[in-house]
Amino acid sequence: MDQPAILVPAVVLAAAFVVYCYVELARATEVRFLPKWGWAVAVAISVPLGGIVYLLAGRSETGSDA
């Protein structure tokens, strides 16, 4: 099997997810449980788990319509 053919899309997808999480983090006015820099480190170190945890638990709900 050609390993780089499988690995390249996975790396691109992971990088895009990290960028999305950083954009969401930068646009957030407030976050929960950790400071922004702590979430940034968690997103970078633990791909994709850190980003998933931030998106589910770290974002503040003050800007929602509900």
From TrEMBL:
Signal peptide: none annotated. Residues 17-59 form the Cardiolipin synthase N-terminal domain. Keywords: Cell membrane, Membrane, Transmembrane, Transmembrane helix. The chain crosses the membrane at residues 6-25, 37-57. It is a multi-pass membrane protein. The keyword Nucleotide-binding does not apply. One of its GO terms (cellular component) is plasma membrane. It is found in: Cell membrane. Its main location: membrane. The keyword Repressor does not apply. Pfam families: PLDc_N. This is Cardiolipin synthase N-terminal domain-containing protein.
